[in-house]
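Re: duplicated header lines in exported structure tokens

Our pipeline writes sequence and tokens for each protein into one text file. With two proteins the header for the second block appears twice in some exports. Here is an export where it did not happen, for reference. First protein block:
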Amino acid sequence: MKFGLINMVASIALIFGIAFSSTILAASPEQIAEGKKVALDRKKGNCLSCHAMADGVLPGNIGPPLVAMKARFPDISVLRAQIYDATAKNPRTIMPPFGKHGILSDKEIDLVTDFIHSL
């Protein structure tokens, strides 16, 4: 009897913990706006040169359109890893390894990730 109650309490705690942690990790509108600035900056992310995205004027078409990103990347850390170093999964990609080569700082990568994930 005690074991069943302990499992039930642990399960409830886990569910609330997951819900609480996802609330804490959600990007604010300000962070998303900052990420958009970095992503569209021609001297920084310049994502628009290869990807079509919302509010993008004259996008490139070398990379896939940045739409439905939460569905495509349910785990935001996988998206961040892709932005940080796309060559880790595909050594022949033409996407620059923004983190590995120091094109963007870790904070800038986090901001761009938050913005892209919001699309």
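Second protein block, exported in the same file:
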Amino acid sequence: MYLANEFDSKKQTLFLLHGFPDNFRVWEPMCNFLNNHFNIICPSSPGTVTDDSDLLSKYRLENLSKYYREILSFAMSELTNVTIVAHDMAGPYAHHMLGFLPDDTKLICINTLSGQMMLDRKSNPKQMIRSAYMSLFQLPFFNKKLLSNYWMDLRKSAARLGRSSILNIPASYNENILNGFFFYKALIRDVKIFLDHSKWKNDVLYLWSDDDPFLVKPTTNEMERRYDHYSIIDVESGHWPMLDVPEDLANKIMQFHGQKENDE
């Protein structure tokens, strides 16, 4: 776990959940602009910092959501004034967590979707085409070397399709990249749990990059089916805006909470 600053019970708490194949360090550039305004908790999901032979079980929706809640409970005496911030594959887990947090818990989605929206993109066929690569991670005969090579090729494709520089795309976690594939396997196994929840009443902000090569911006129809209260803001970035435009992203998060932007 990475606790970015000292806890202040008077401040709103941001609980930052990374995606695949990252760890908590992906949030550091953005946290530099938020440390003075929020409590910040950045956990690393199981397997992204150490190897583990039982990752598939730990990445199941109930288990990983429980793990995240225990981290929150450790840092806070009362689970109030919390905003969950999720990127990429953390989206389904973040949505599931709303079920056992207070009703006023806010959610910020950065280039991510709920589990339902990941599975049901019939109103957005472009996403079905872009997500075709996910099927590779379900094949049992794909060895680690092949999957690792595929990820490196994916990085190059991301750079060509809108990233500012391939150097900014996380690649320093080589020993942990393969563990991240368990995200995909666990998500597929939990399809029924995703579909059991239809709509959220929480206040939700979507921050969506205009040059994301992996995910297509959700349609109004998709959003209205899933949320009572939501807003969506475009970001000039690739898939990792917390690395590309950290200050801009921090300012948008502050605006969502009714705070003034950084003057730095």
